[in-house]
Specification:
Sensor_HK_TwoCompSys; 13% strand; 60% helix; six-stranded antiparallel beta sheet; Pdz3 Domain; transmembrane; kinase; five-stranded mixed beta sheet; alpha+beta; single chain; membrane
């Protein structure tokens, strides 16, 4: 079923072709004497300005009578602009009917004043044929066709929206002004009286009503004025008043109304230009104002101002009125360049329509000439309606054929949205996030053949662009908002903003399209769907990468726990296993010993080993509980261990802490076990060998390192001891290395053992260990 837009387009096109066909028929069959007339104001007579070779009249002749009828000003006048009153208008119609009847005879006698003498000349009127095409007024016919085509094209783009209907009405009324005026002025003297009367009444009505529609349209540009939104009935009241004034046929009032409406239209456009702040709308109104300047300016300068000053025109309105076509032309340019009335692409898809109209008009011309050679002028129906029926019947077929041909030649194949998305999906399948961004850029370029495309993404030099689009999503028309139109070059029109969990992930800046500048609604809809698909792909890729990272981290953590577990059990085997073996051997010796002293010594050693074994088991159990331990609990355990080991031996003990590990950092099992063993080994050496009276332990978390130092005031260490010879020092350094740290021993007044381990970078600890494996001062 045909939609509203197509129905209106087809109906108006048929009416337009009928009007053109009727005008051409009337002009083709109008009587001609082979002369051009002009009114001589001084003598009050119609004089021959020029004549054709076959005419019996000469330039300078004054026609005073036609077929026994005395002629005056109204009989030979063809332009209604000179009609002053309603009565004069009706008299003009009657005079034209009389003249037509006289000139329709095969032969007619003319009273001609030549060289001061009145004489009677018998003439034979002819059909005008296509001689009217040489008349300068033919430009009005061309202007009417152009205005009608612009109106139809604009209406097809925006449909029954308020602006579209008003623009269509305005275009049709201006077209009627041009066509009816051209038909009257291109006839030599007169054409069929009924049509002459109808065309001139339509012309008189269309002039003020067209101006009213033009003023109404300016109130809707670039957007509807607020008072029209609040009081929509004002528009109907306005048109009602205009129709009543025109229906009165009071010519001076109608002329005054037309002038007022034109002035109000100009004022409305100037107001819209000055009030509008957005750059795109300001550019739109600038071009609309330019259209009024070029459309009305020539007429104002040539005729309006002279009429106010000297009371008459400098010339007729033939040329100056033709400039009115610039008003819709400049509006069309504002649509094409700056999306006036929110129309995306004005001429896309209209080439076939315009070409069809032009071709069928040529067909109409041809059949008109052919049929009029075989039918008399009185047979209007065959001369007009047969060509019209033919061109209307061919309209749909010819238009569709031309559309297919144009699309094939210029490769204007419109890709369906589903195909664009499917093409992108094939590209993006299995890609990483950055690859998906590149696939989106390729898909957009393939679908639209954009002149320039730029991508700004997170992590590169496009951070400033991403900040500009903070909080924005989807497709952004850059020229519709000042903050974007001022920031980006004019060659960029649309931005695709891809968002993620932390804001804009990437922004695609799209340049112009081939053959046009702005993107149509269909283009924007395809881009929006494509962006949504790409965003889903990108989010899935990010989620996959995050899951993969977490899985790897989990595997690394599980491997670390397994390594810790293996190291702990190996340590348990070496520690508890060795102690148990020693206890077993000493027990065997005690059982086999016959000396009470040897037996007592063995049992004493077994007791000490048992205590050491209990300590090893406690240390092991503490390392197992260290899954949820913190550095605070580790420090507290060091405090408890120091007190329990040193105080019974009358050694003063003090633990000092500084710094903060920060964040949620926690020591691992292996870390806690090795730190505790190194600490206990150092304290055991102090108890057994240092003869110290006090020990100071410092725990520091500064500059990303865990530092544990044990300083005593004892006898110090020999050079061999500081180099790791004996007393478990070598074993302590191996434990430090196992957790990525460095153990250093210094001697002086007492001894100092220092363990230094990176808090959050085991690799740094290993590098430190490799570079300072022998760092003992």
């Amino acid at each position: 079923m045909m939609n509203f837009n197509k129905s209106v387009t087809l109906g108006l096109t048929c009416g337009f072709l009928l009007l053109i066909a009727l005008s051409l028929h009337l002009l083709y069959n109008s009587p001609s004497l082979g002369i051009a007339l002009e009114w001589d104001l001084a003598s009050g007579e119609h004089k021959v300005a020029s004549s054709k070779p076959w005419s019996r009249l000469k330039a300078g002749d004054s026609i005073t009578g036609v077929g026994g009828l005395r002629v005056g000003f109204l009989h030979l006048q063809t332009d209604n602009i000179y009609i002053r009153t309603r009565d004069e208008l009706l008299s003009w119609f009657d005079a034209k009917r009389e003249i037509f009847e006289k000139l329709s005879q095969p032969h007619v006698s003319l009273l001609v004043l030549r060289d001061g003498q009145e004489r009677e000349i018998l003439v034979s009127p002819r059909k005008a044929g296509f001689s009217f095409l040489s008349n300068l007024v033919f430009i009005h016919l061309i202007a009417g066709i152009v205005v009608f085509l612009i109106g139809i094209i604009v209406f097809n783009k925006i449909g029954r929206r308020k602006q579209g209907l008003v623009f269509l009405v305005m275009s049709c009324l201006i077209m009627l002004i041009f066509i009816t005026n051209a038909t009257s002025l291109m006839s030599e003297i007169v054409y069929e009286p009924t049509c002459f009367k109808l065309f001139n009444i339509v012309n008189i009505f269309s002039l003020p009503l067209g101006s009213a529609a033009l003023f109404h349209l300016t109130l809707l540009l670039p957007r509807k004025r607020r008072f029209l939104e609040r009081f929509p009935a004002l528009a109907l009241l306005f048109y009602g008043i205009c129709i009543l004034i025109v229906a009165s046929l009071r010519i001076p009032v109608i002329n005054a109304l037309t002038a007022i409406l034109c002035a109000l239209s100009v004022a409305s456009v100037i107001c819209g230009f000055l009030v509008e702040k957005r750059p795109l709308e300001k550019q739109q109104m600038k071009w609309v104002l330019a259209g009024f300047l070029f459309g009305l300016g020539p007429w104002v300068l040539i005729n309006a101002i002279p009429m106010l000053v000297i009371g008459e025109r400098l010339t007729n309105d033939t040329v100056s009125a033709g400039f009115v076509v610039f008003i819709p032309l400049f509006m069309a340019f504002a649509i094409w360049k700056y999306r006036l009335m929110d129309i995306d692409t004005l001429f896309e898809g209209t080439f076939a329509y315009v070409t069809t109209i032009l071709l069928l008009s040529v067909v109409d011309f041809g059949f008109l000439g052919l049929l009029n050679n075989h039918f008399s002028a009185s047979q209007v129906i065959p001369g007009v309606f047969l060509p019209l029926l033919l061109v209307v019947s061919l309209y749909v077929v010819v238009r569709d054929r031309i559309r297919l041909f144009v699309r094939k030649v210029f490769r204007r194949i419109v890709l369906p949205e589903a195909d664009v998305i499917a093409s992108f999906s094939r590209r993006a399948k299995g890609l990483a996030p950055d690859g998906i961004l590149e696939a989106l850029a390729d898909a957009v370029q393939e679908a639209f053949h954009i002149k320039e495309l730029r991508v700004a993404r997170r992590g590169d030099t496009g951070e400033d662009v991403l900040k500009l689009f903070h909080g924005r999503t989807d497709v952004v028309n850059l020229w519709e908002e000042p903050q974007f139109s001022d920031f980006f070059p004019q060659r960029f029109f649309v931005a695709l903003v891809m968002t993620g969990g932390t804001g804009a992930e990437a922004v695609f800046l799209l340049g112009g399209l081939p053959g046009r500048r702005f993107y149509s609604r269909r283009d924007l809809a395809v881009l929006k769907a494509l962006l949504a698909q790409a965003t889903a792909f990108h989010e899935n890729a990010l989620l996959y990468d995050e899951n993969f990272r977490q899985r790897n981290a989990r595997l690394i953590e599980e491997q670390r726990h397994a390594d810790e577990k293996e190291a702990i059990f190996k340590d348990l085997h070496d520690g508890i296993g060795g102690i148990s073996a020693n206890i077993h051997l000493l027990a065997e010796l005690a059982l086999n010993s016959s000396s009470p002293a040897d037996m007592k010594k063995a049992l004493s050693t077994i007791s000490g080993l048992s205590q050491e074994g209990i300590s090893e088991i406690n240390t092991f159990l503490q390392s197992l509980d260290s899954e949820d331990a913190t550095y605070e609990t580790l420090t507290a355990e060091l405090q408890h261990t120091g007190n329990s080991m040193l105080v019974p031996h009358r050694i003063d003990f003090r633990l000092e802490r500084s710094g903060n590990p920060g964040g949620d950092a926690r020591p691992g099992r292996l870390f806690s076990l090795n730190v505790t063993r190194i600490y206990k080994e150092a304290l055991t050496n102090v108890i057994k060998h240092a003869k110290a009276r006090s020990v100071v332990v410092r725990v520091d978390f500064s500059v990303g390192f865990f530092t544990l130092s044990i300083r005593d005031d004892g006898t110090g260490l020999s050079e061999g001891m500081t180099k790791g010879q004996g007393r478990g020092i070598d074993n302590m350094k191996k434990r430090a290395k196992n957790i990525g740290g460095v153990l250093s021993i210094s001697a002086g007044k007492g001894a100092c053992v220092e363990l230094r381990v990176p808090l959050s970078c085991p690799e740094a600890g290993r590098a430190l260990q490799n570079g300072n494996a022998a760092a003992v001062s």
